[in-house]
From TrEMBL, chain A:
Keywords from the UniProt entry: Hydrolase, Iron, Metal-binding, Protein biosynthesis
Single Gene Ontology BP annotation: translation
Family of this protein: Belongs to the polypeptide deformylase family.
Name recorded for this polypeptide: Peptide deformylase
EC number: 3.5.1.88
Organism: Kribbella solani
CDD domains named in the record: Pep_deformylase (cd00487)
UniProt cross-references to Pfam families, sorted A to Z: Pep_deformylase
Lineage of the organism: Bacteria, Bacillati, Actinomycetota, Actinomycetes, Propionibacteriales
Active site: 157
Lineage top rank: taxon: Bacteria
Automatic annotation (TrEMBL), chain B:
Highest taxon of source: Bacteria
Protein name listed in UniProt: Glycine cleavage system transcriptional repressor
PROSITE patterns membership: ACT (PS51671)
PANTHER family from the UniProt entry: UPF0237 PROTEIN MJ1558
Phylogenetic placement of the source organism: Bacteria, Bacillati, Actinomycetota, Actinomycetes, Propionibacteriales
Pfam families found in the cross-reference section: ACT_6
Organism name: Kribbella solani
Domain ACT, residue spans: 5-76, 88-161
Amino acid sequence: MTEVISGWSPELLGVQGRVLDVVRAPHPVLATEGAVVDPRDPEMIQLAADLVATMRVSPGCVGLAAPQVGVAAQMFSLDVSGHPKTRTCHGVFVLCNAEIVESSRNEKAREGCMSVPDFTGDVKRATRLTVTGVLPGGTEPVTISTDGFEARALQHEIDHCAGKLFLDRVAGAHAVYPRKVYQ
Amino acid sequence: MSQLAVTVIGPDRPGIIADVTEALVGTGVNLEDSTMTLLRGHFAMMIVCAGPYDEVKAALEPLRGELVITVREMGPEHRHAAIGAPYLLSVHGADRPGIVSAVTRMVAAAGGTVTDMSTRLSGGLYVLTAEVELPPAAELTTLNRALEITAEELGVGVTLRPAESDEL
């Protein structure tokens, strides 16, 4: 099952991705629960390509959910390859209608988000995770079991699809910080 | 309309925040940054807000007494420009005078700045946590060594670790 995801590439979508604008909080779409999508709908296949293309041009971005480009839908792209904190890695993929089926071993870490550029926050997330979903263009559910940074990124994106930001999950009254920008 | 710094401190009771912010909202004030916490039974608030000085002062007047309130005009907004990468500094150990001054002096000597800090004392245990920015030129090894030596003299433990966030 994991091989299906690792073997996936955006070329399989057969359409050219477009770079879209990333919306920022407090845009209402970021607080809207995303609709369940039909992974075979050509519009959704185009959206999948657009998410990958937009993620690719955004420096440091390891994941992008449909609400972040203004579409309240349950779809996100992910690619944590090359990130120093990554352990298990499934490369680049897009997942539709993803659901968490198992999670354990919570750890707290500081997260930032392209849609919340001025803040970061400490969030507790599972470090062992199993998720199901459907690849764009596909029909069969796929299962992905992962850990560490990929697990954190998946939970962050699945939250976006449910209309939640890391700000909804911060670990305490003093767990939101102004983003430190320097150089 | 100027930027105001409002500080409020007093023995804790339910409703302090509600009372103070209700008085402020009555003057059309928009709360901006604030930090509020309970310090050994005293509730303390620091609020930065934009509003008319005289009206804000007058609106808070009835609350004075049990609460010590100050209002100060601050002039134009002063944005903090980060001087370098963020770090978390934690110190804990047996309580004694001089821990904060000694540790923050080490940070300052390395060109670093503290952007957030809180300390707690419980029984004999003293705990300090701080967000610190260090300039790119800072000698991390030297600073760590200096902190270790200071900590040893004070009889406390100290750790300094990067607080960089992951972009998701």
